[in-house]
Design goal:
Blueprint: H1 4-15, H2 21-25, H3 37-51, H4 57-60, H5 66-75
Helix pairs in contact: 1-3
């Protein structure tokens, strides 16, 4: 089974298909011109489905980069598969 980062990259690639993997790894809402609130919600939905987890809606506004989503998943390690 692919590791978490690879799975997360795939989620980002669905929402941002024009980004390379390297661009995804450094992606932020500020650096990706098409990243808007709808992108964030779509990413969250994909990630929740992929990782069988729940993202706290209060935290969602702070998830504005690949790194922040990755860190959130790592912090939720015991509930993420």
């Amino acid at each position: 089974m692919p590791d978490r980062q690879e799975r997360l990259v795939r989620c980002f690639a669905v929402v941002f298909p024009t980004l390379t993997e390297e661009e995804i790894l450094t992606a932020t809402a500020g650096s990706v011109g098409i990243w808007d609130s709808l992108s964030t919600v779509t990413l969250a939905a994909l990630i929740q489905e992929e990782f069988a987890c729940e993202i706290d809606p209060e935290v969602l506004a702070n998830l504005d980069s690949f790194a922040s989503f990755r860190d959130y998943l790592l912090a939720s390690d015991s509930t993420v598969r």
